[in-house]
């Protein structure tokens, strides 16, 4: 430890306190703001896809409705519940970190990973069904389902394909975020077990929690927009 | 270890928010099966926004943060997302009028 470091803080300062911060509190607020700025870029990143969805949904509404009706809504609703519960366990994990309950923190992190993995498992099943039904955009694409209540309406193959392109892009990018989140949580479990965190320092737990909740918020919008276009 | 002043959210509030989120998911699904005309989408988005607000304010601690810049960043994100969506719609939504 250099002399300049010692000159800034008292010799018994927290080992995780960097020299350019006054207090642990200030350091954590700064890290949290940085995480939020990253999440703002994520909002704009997903926003572009939401915008594409919105434009094509208005343009090809009936075809989008028919394509949306072909997705298994029960699994989507189940997955929404699973992801919301995982967000709750993540909030509980951060709470345990704040209170210094390290063992319970690991338990809640593992539960969050369990629910996150369950979500991805259901997603894999849904993707598999779409491959079997030839609903994946490409040379083998074939959409033969009818629009509910309109048996005479001929669904446009290209427009239905546009729906599924957006469906796979958005849910796929969402799933990729979850895979990254699971990796980050695996790191948190190891770091917690090694005693890296305390009530004074748990910034990574807090920030990875923010990331996980953000991924949850994206899904909160994806579920009604992709699964529930026209279910009556 | 008293240097950290962060607000600890009480358990009952986390439990209430968690249950509300699950109930609202059921409500979203139920409302989608009713025929409300153009209001189906509006109700679905209103419920989604209500759920997202709960997650951001409580689970993500925005209600309790002393860092005003965090709130400014969130408002900026919502503003620019709204700008992106409304201006795109003003373009693509009115092209058929010509």
Largest β-sheet summary of chain B: none
Query: How helical, in percent, are the residues of chain A?
Result: over 70%
Helix percentage range of chain B? 55-70%
Q: How many distinct helices of chain B?
A: 3
Please report the total strand number of chain A as a whole number.
0
Mean pLDDT of chain A: 93
Question: What is the N-to-C succession of helices and strands of chain A?
Answer: HHHHHHH
Given helix and strand content, the structural type of chain B is mainly alpha
Based on Cα principal axes, name the global outline of chain B.
flat
- Please name the CATH topology of chain A: Four Helix Bundle (Hemerythrin (Met), subunit A)
User: Rg of chain B from C-alpha positions?
Assistant: 18 Å
Oligomer type: heterodimer
Q: Strand count, sense and closure of the main sheet of chain A?
A: none
**Low-pLDDT regions of chain A:** none
> What count of structural domains of chain B?
2
Shape of chain A: elongated
Cα-to-Cα separation, first versus last residue of chain A? 67 Å
Span between termini of chain B: 67 Å
């Amino acid at each position: 430890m250099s002399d300049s470091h010692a000159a800034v803080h008292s010799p018994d300062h927290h080992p995780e306190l960097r020299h350019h911060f006054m207090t642990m509190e200030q350091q954590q607020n700064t890290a949290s703001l940085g995480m939020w700025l990253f999440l703002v870029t994520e909002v704009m990143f997903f926003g572009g896809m939401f915008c594409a969805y919105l434009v094509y949904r208005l343009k090809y509404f009936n075809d989008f409705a028919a394509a949306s009706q072909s997705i298994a809504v029960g699994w989507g609703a189940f997955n929404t519940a699973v992801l919301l519960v995982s967000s709750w366990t993540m909030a509980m994990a951060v709470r345990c970190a704040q209170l210094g309950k390290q063992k319970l923190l690991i338990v809640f992190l593992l539960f969050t990973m369990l629910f996150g993995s369950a979500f991805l498992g259901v997603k894999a099943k849904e993707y598999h069904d779409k491959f079997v039904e030839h609903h994946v955009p490409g040379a083998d694409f074939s959409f033969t389902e009818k629009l509910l209540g309109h048996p005479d309406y001929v669904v446009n193959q290209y427009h239905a394909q546009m729906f599924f392109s957006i469906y796979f892009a958005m849910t796929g990018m969402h799933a990729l975020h979850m895979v990254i989140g699971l990796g980050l949580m695996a790191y948190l479990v190891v770091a917690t077990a090694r005693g890296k965190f305390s009530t004074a320092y748990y910034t990574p737990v807090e920030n990875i929690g923010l990331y996980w909740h953000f991924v949850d918020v994206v899904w909160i919008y994806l579920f009604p927009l992709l699964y529930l276009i026209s279910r009556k | 270890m008293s240097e950290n002043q962060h607000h600890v959210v009480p358990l009952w509030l986390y439990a209430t928010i968690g249950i509300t989120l699950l109930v609202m998911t059921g409500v979203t699904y139920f409302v989608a099966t009713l025929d409300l005309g153009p209001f189906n989408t509006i109700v679905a988005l209103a419920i989604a926004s209500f759920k997202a607000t709960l997650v951001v304010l409580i689970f993500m601690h925005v209600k309790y943060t002393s860092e005003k810049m965090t709130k400014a960043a969130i408002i900026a994100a919502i503003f620019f997302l709204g700008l992106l969506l409304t201006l795109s719609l003003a373009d693509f939504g009115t092209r058929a009028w010509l």
